[in-house]
Amino acid sequence: MVKADESTGTTTLNQTQPTPAWIKFNDDEKIALGGSWTIGEAERLDKELVVIHDGDGSRIIINISELERLDTAGAWLIHRTRKALEAAGAEVMLDGMNPEYEVLLNEVAANDQSYPPLLHTNQLAEWIARTGEVTLDTLRRARDFIGFFGLIVLTLLRTVTHPTRLRLVPMIHHIEHVGLNALPIVGLISFLIGVVIAYQGANQMKQFGAEVFVVNLIAVSILREIGILLAAIVIAGRSGSAFPAHIGAMKEHEEIDAKRTLGLDPIEVLVLPRLLALVLAMPLLAFFADMMGLLGGGLMSWVVLDIKPDQFVERLGNAVSLWSFWIGIIKAPFFAVIIALVGCYEGFQVGGSAESVGHMTSRSVVEAIFLVIVVDAAFSIFFQLVGV
Amino acid sequence: MSDEAVIRVKNLRTGFGDHVVHDGLNLEVLRGEVLGVVGGSGAGKSVLLHSIIGLQKPWAGSIEVLGQRVLDLEPPERAALEARWGVLFQDGALFSSLTVAQNIQVPLKEHLNLNQRLMDEIAMIKIGLVGLPPESGRLYPAELSGGMRKRAGLARALALDPEILFLDEPTSGLDPIGAARFDALIKRLRKTLGFTVFMVTHDLDSLNAICDRIAVLADKQVVAIGDMKQMLNERHPWVVEYFHGPRARSAGL
Hints:
The complex is a heterodimer of chains A (388) and B (253). Chain A is an alpha/beta fold and 388 residues long. Helix content of chain A is 69%, strand content 8%. Chain A folds into two domains: 22-110, STAS domain (Transcription Regulator spoIIAA, 2-Layer Sandwich); 148-385, no CATH class. In chain A, helix 1 links the parallel strand 2 and strand 3. Chain B contains ten helices and ten strands. In chain B, the strands form two sheets. Chain B has a six-stranded mixed sheet with strand order 6-7-8-3-9-10. A four-stranded antiparallel sheet of chain B has the order 2-1-4-5, with helices on one face.
């Protein structure tokens, strides 16, 4: 237990049971303060002190000789009260001062600085200003992103002329991470979507007695759109978050600056291996997604419509041309470039705080998925126009 | 300074895996003093600090802070004890998503129930006490320089007017002028607020400037403790090398 030390009656810092703080109004001109004026009592004292904030031009004596403890918060309350009384025209005297309190009270008085107020401006003006700010920021980011893209193209061209500069080992490491390790989840999702399409399709087609066209439905939707889109969205979630988090953390630890000083080009070392790995892995992932989707669709057709696997394959050959397959695969490298560029770009935008890493990561994922879908829609229109 | 010990470490034994950091370490910190803890890299200065404030569980031994055995406390008692000390981590360890004023208010919100206006006022006083300009209350840690971050971290450590202040290398990373100012700040605040300081440091200048006593960690124990005069007469080889080396001479010891 802590030794009690109340006998001295002054600022003992021992945690004995402190006397609650009190305020006594002896008459209009005399106020006595006592007990322990500490931060734990501050809320209560703050409320009680409100009543004596209106002085009436007289002399007021505040007696603090019975204070047992005083900390910064208590000293601030005394100082604030005195200031308010003086502002109301009273003359205030502090009585019963001891040297310790005096130091503290003087220090608090010296640091009496008001909280910088928020600027109150016109709401409408603020709204317009914010709109402008966001617009400018978006344009600036678009410009930066195009610049980043150009930088990568240049670096890529340089690598083409000097192929030995290509970092093969990191690239293969990234292929493993973005491609191979994504196989289970991409496969599972595609398989399940294939099952869902077959099941829903079968229900609809049955009404027209056209069950066998379920195969066409599955083949066209999976090969042309669903397979690659699912693969791209899963990768945008995986790599679209891993890239900016990794590069952002490197930036925070000055690893990127260190690379520069060692003559290493961060684009060449960090971006190209990721970009090329994704460009190589994405078509393979799309192919895998296609196959798993067809497998899921085929199995479900067999179960609900009794279309045997050999019938399914035969029907598949009639339903789609090789082009349907290639249309899906052709899009893969484009999506890969989008995901890698957005991820790396946002990684380089990280700065300042741990929060910023999280912010850029989520932005990267959202932007990558959004752009993938926009570009997919553009491809749809394009293929419609050229008639494949 | 009185003879009452506010921190009492007895037979402390700590380590990681099969690496022993402290073995049979004893240390007492007296009320009101500034104790500087020095030792080579890896001597266990930070581990000692972390053990005392409960961030690291020792293998054996007892640690008493303000008369309470830190290791045996129930969570509510622990929280009450934690409100009575403040810790300044090496780079301030400010919460990066909060402004400086909000950082200072975190302990106030956690331990007390104060209205926002009063908390703002208290935060501004602390900002002033540690020598930061009022505008810094609205800034985020990323917008501060290293020296300002340390001051802001100190302001947060002082939020509840603690009885003990733990400082982990408070002057590391500061330029000599900033370091000297920080020393002066600690000295002034101690006079005003009357706290005890437990300071881990490498800085001979600040040992000389503000420490009442110095404890030397070596060989898994406190090999020497006393004021600067005693340190200069110590015989332990590490102490001799530390206090009589070229850096000590340039510090004017």
